[in-house]
User: What shape does this take?
Amino acid sequence: MTQSGSNTPLQPKVLVVEDEDAQREVLCYNLASEGFAVVTAEDGEKALELVEDEGPDLILLDWMIPKISGLEVCRRLKMQAKTRPIPIIMLSARAEEVDRVRGLETGADDYMVKPYSIVELMARVRSQFRRSRPVLVGSVIEFGNITLDPEAYRVYVEGKAVHLGPTEFRLLATFMERPGRVFSREQLLDRVWGREVLIDTRTVDVHVGRLRRAILQTRGDYPLRTVRGAGYALG
Assistant: This one.
């Protein structure tokens, strides 16, 4: 279930997979206090469903959960190209080195032993976001002569400010986080508009065109390329 109220495509979404009520509530409270949207699952089956339905940006995954273990959930997600990039922090009472190694080798991006410091866990969450989705934690990112500042909501091209609408801003942020990656129109709809919004994929082409025109006002070339039959990519 979704714990936070208003969620925008640029608000980081964290899936908490934890079957202990008290632990889950503590995690939800602290994540919400940090400004994250939170979705929760109590077992492995529900976790896999929510990954498909909600498209979280990061997963806090307990190892010992009902139905499907956290280790198996991690393995399945890391085997699929669509879900492989989602950072997973595994939480476990298993403190032996062999267990930590097993969790990391299964694909977990980080591993924390219970009982853990909630302050340290939040720091590790932010660290994962800085690597995987820097825009979501307010980090300024650059590509070539383009600079995007998510906190100030400003874009500069060759040092000159460029005015972008909210949708074009989110589009550019998505491309700049993953230079070289080809995004299909469906993937861009999920990232920029959100999964709950039902609009035609041709809408993506309209907004990419607006983004192109805005950038071209400041520089002579445009680094966003169309990949025929596939989508768009930056660089």
